Amino acid sequence: MSNVDELEALLRPPAMEMPPYPPKVITLASGEQMVVRQIDRDEVPTLLKAIAPLIWVERDFYDVVAARLFGELLAYKRYRVRDEYCLVGLIDGVLAGIVNGRAVNGDVGMSYHTITIRRGLRVGSHMFAAKMEYHMEYLNQKEVLIVAESPIGFRRWMIEYPLQKKYEVQHELGGVPSWTLTRDTYFKAKPRLVSGRRPVPPELLERAKTITLPGEETVKAQVLGEKGEGA
Amino acid sequence: MREVAIIGAGMTKFGRSDLSLIEIMSEAAIRALEDAALGDQKVDSVYVANMGAARLNRQTAIASALVDQLNLFPAMAEAVENGPASGASAFKNGFQAIASGMADVVLVTGGERMREVNNLEATDFVASMSHPQAEYIYGVTLPALAGMFTRLYMDRYGVTAKHLALVAIKNHANALKNPYAHIHQAITIEGILTAPEAVVNNPYIADPLRLYDCCPVSDGAAALVLTTREIAEKLGKPIVKVGGIGQATDTHAVHERPDPTELTAVKIAAQKAFQMAGIGPQDIDVAELHDAFTILEIAESEEAGFFPKGEGHNALEQGVTSLGGKLPINPSGGLKAKGHPVGATGVAQLVELTWQLRGAAGDRQVEGAKNAFACNFGGFGNNVVTTVLMREE
Amino acid sequence: MEEKVYGVQCKTCGKETYPAHAVCPNCGGHDFEPLEITGEGKVLTYTDVYALPLDYALRYLRLAIVELDSGLRATGQLVDDDPKIGKRVRTTVGVVRETGGRKIYGLQFVPV
Ligand SMILES: [Zn+2]
Question: Residues C19, C45: one domain?
């Protein structure tokens, strides 16, 4: 028995002290309130249920992003990725978007994935911005390494911020080399890309305590752009 | 000239489609043909409205392809390309064929499959309408032309960001009542304009125009069946008569217009359609205007003669153009929220108005609508087709 | 490199147009002389475009319609950090687009 524990200790990466992401609330175009908060490991199985059906959706590279995010979150739950975190966006408790990433060390962050469940309300944009906010303002890192795996991501992150090429560094996702968000770029982009209010009113926070999943059909309809803003 | 009536109308849901261009056009055409219930009567001629099949879908000669799908041999068939006004242009050709006696039954089908390419490519495709040497090379896009137009309009007539937002909010609300609309999403003034988050929710596309001032990129098709008044009566159809059609052109480069805030082609085309119909703007009960950008709904409502120049935004603010108002504009959701598959748009506007005049527009029905007006706007107003439809008891 | 932008002047009636047309909008004439588009004028309207077509890896592009003192108008890129309707500008010519490795020259307006 103690052998297993010793082995697990060898397999489990050491963890760095990471301050939590304080929840915030964002008013969306529809007037709905989206609470963005960090999840803990116990909530991962719920998210996996939402992500799994998207693994077979080719449109807009949902398949690639969903499959990789599934693996990353599962590994997070089972202590196989070092210093990972995950933030969710919830509208009335219903899952609207997920982002994740990790701290490489005190100075460098590594952005993993952004997946939008409720499309057409710039949820992806808000969630990506929340992730950058976490790295820059709460982990106080110097830079975040980022890649895009879809044209939408490229346009959102690389051009909107805009990120700088850092091709001498290979991103952990293994695709194209890295792009980087520096503190300088982040604080310049912040007024037009990062929003939300704190503290979240208690009743809103209470409703965001439990993650409710939209039905699989609803998720697919939203993701395939049959609802909401197509662009 | 023979009188012409619409006896069949149908469309696909606008949005994103996995079907091919010919498949979505077939779907709309079959719906319109079923609605027309022609019996022994054959389709003599087919007019297809489309702007980008050659570039977006790598297919040409699409009218022949559609006839083949629908087994309409040996009907005459051709495609009409007139930018985003292709739909109403094709309709005009169908009207002429019947009015002249060249054909007795015509199928008009407009369709576009834009999402086969990515958004950058789609933007560039639409931008290729602009003047190649004097506009396009500078990075001019349709949103850019609309943005410059909007800035001047705001400066001159007191239109504000709030008025633009009100157009979007109204048309998104209307689209919620239209099962065929691309976008089923209510939006609020807080979310797109007044909340601090609005800068993220509603970013600038071509300042002062923002995301929610611009129509989405859509796939979709719409179709109409036209015939003579006699055949329509014989088939026992409710008569939706084509009262008048007007068309006018304007300079290719927008900067060459004597007053770039005037959409002269809209004004002339509307006057011609009203003259032909023998009625005026005051007789119209419902209108579908080409709101590819929110400002265009306001500007066209003035040029068409519904409101004096510079006062369209006041009428909008007073609710005159909302469902339940005196002159509802874009009950379908307009291009803004119903979507804008460019070749389909002009036909889809007339499909909506046909349903409105038949009293078959569901929750978005304009009560007792008798006369209807459509404006289909090509380029940035360099080729405009307007139509007046009239219900006869 | 000397790059210029040209409109035309009608040889029959003297009417200046930009861009060129095959038929003079004033007199119907067909004979034209090249007319360099240059000089000072004022900004009629402008926009910052974020939805850019292919060939631009920028966040946005600033475009304007300028009315030259000659009365001719032209669309081009506005190189000015503080744009305003009515502001005085003059024409310059620079690279306005690069497509397939080819540089395209056109009008760029700068404040006077
Ligand atoms: Zn002349």
Answer: no
pLDDT of B392 higher than 90? no
If asked whether residues C17 and C50 sit together in one domain, one would say no
The 3-state secondary structure of C18-82 reads CCCCCCCCCCCCCCEEEEECCCEEEEEEEEEECCCCCCCCCCCEEEEEEEECCCCEEEEEECCCC
Q: How far is CA B127 from the centre of its chain?
A: 18
Residues A73, A40 contacting (CB under 8 angstroms): no
* HSE, side-chain direction, 13 A CA sphere, residue A230: 28
pLDDT of A215 reads 86
Same domain as C107, residue C60: yes
pLDDT in tens, A180-189: 999 999 999 9
In whole angstroms, how far apart are CA B359 and each of A162, B31, B124, B244? Answer: 51, 18, 40, 21
- Report the distance separating Cα B307 and Cα C6, nearest Å: 40
**Segments forming the whole domain that contains residue C20:** 1-36
Spacing, Cα C20 to ligand 1 middle (Å): 12
| Helix, strand and coil in chain A, % to nearest 5 | 40, 25, 35
Query: Which ipTM did the prediction report?
Result: 0.97
Give the residue from chain A lying closest to C58, CA to CA.
A159
pLDDT at residue B170 is higher than 60: yes
**CA of B43: how far to CAs of B72, B79, B89, in Å?**
7, 16, 19
CA gap B220, B183 in Å, rounded = 13
Please give the C-alpha separations between residue A107 and each of A181, B87, B242, B254, in angstroms, as whole numbers: 12, 57, 70, 52
Q: Are residues C65 and C93 in the same domain?
A: yes
CA end-to-end distance (rounded Å), chain C = 23
- Which amino acid is present at B370? K
Best residue of A27, A200, A223 to probe chain B, by most B CBs closer than 10 Å = A27
DSSP lists the bridge partners of residue B385 as: B247, B376
Residues of C near B (Cβ–Cβ under 8 Å) read: 17-19, 44-56, 60-61, 63-65, 73-77, 85, 96-97, 104, 106-107
| Mean of pLDDT values over A66-86 | 96
CA atoms within a 13 Å half-sphere pointing along the CA-CB vector of B38? 23
pLDDT at A230: 35
Residue contact C97–B256, C-beta within 8 A? no
The Cα–Cα gap between B187 and B314 comes to 21
Question: Is residue C103 scored above 80 in pLDDT?
Answer: yes
Q: How far is C78 from chain A (nearest CA, A)?
A: 20
**Res C27 pLDDT > 70:** yes
Which pLDDT score is estimated for A2?
Answer: 58
pLDDT value for A228: 41
Amino acid identity, position B5:
A
Domain range enclosing A31: 16-225
Mean pLDDT of B6-17: 96
Task: Give the strand pairing for C88-99 and C102-111.
Answer: antiparallel
pTM: 0.94
Count each helix (H run) and each strand (E run) in chain A, helices first. Answer: 8, 8
Binary contact (C75, B205; C-beta < 8 A): no
> Mean of the pLDDT values across residues A139-155?
87
Residues C52, B253: C-beta atoms closer than 8 Å: no
Number of domains forming the structure of chain C? 2
The CATH fold of domain B4-118+217-234? Peroxisomal Thiolase; Chain A, domain 1 (3.40.47)
Ligand 1 center to residue A98 CA distance, Å?
Answer: 64
